[in-house]
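Data card: per-record layout.
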Amino acid sequence: MLSKRIIICLDVREGKTTKGVKFEGNIEIGNPVSMAREYYEQGVDELVFYDITASSDKRNIIIEVVDAVAKNIFIPFAVGGGIRTLDDMYAVLSAGAEKISVNTAAVVTPDLISEGAKIFGSQCVVLGMDAKKAPKTSAIPSGYEVYINGGRTPMGIDAVRWAREAQNLGAGEICLNSIDADGTNEGYELIITEKISQAVTIPVIASGGAGKPEHLKDVFMQAHADAALIASMVHYKQYTVGEIKSYLAHEGIPVRELI
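The structure for this 259-residue chain is written out next.
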């Protein structure tokens, strides 16, 4: 088994890190630059930065914050939110990110994935997918629907089908955000994570719901995720990265050693 990655998510609004539940009620919890540095020093494998209102506000990502974060860490760093064009992708990569996460714009203009992969490489293009439970229909056979605009707009698109299409277009990774589980601290949405992990061959990052190390064990062992995104459990000082990795290693799950 390949080493499983631990990724910390920084949801940013107006230059401040925020946290909400099920994509609602976000409150400010800190400075993304200092938080990124702290998590880097704790030994997290990667960081992801989401400008959570850039798409819904129809504005560009706050590139100054991206640049400041990148200057303070030396691990892979993905950025998403408000990225609509190849120029936006180039700007984020030039500011120091290693990966670009495309979500709303990818659904609206799928060619953005293929064009980005062609120019920057598939390893740089991450599909961010916000999914929520829905009645099973011929259009949504998996029972999980894709949403855009920060989880505000349902699209009538099946999550599993969209994952396969994104891989075929050239996405190098999928970050699956469960709207139902987000911020609940009750565990990842294992069913849709497993469905998508089985449907594609590119890495799948589970996101939404982590509240304790056992939840990471479950999503790795039961849903076969390649990486797990965490936020609340470290933002609120419940656990450190080292404690989480020690638990997983003790449970026989390979993780990257702390430096």
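Known properties of this structure: The first helix runs from residue 32 to 42. The chain has a mean pLDDT of 91.

See the next section for split statistics.
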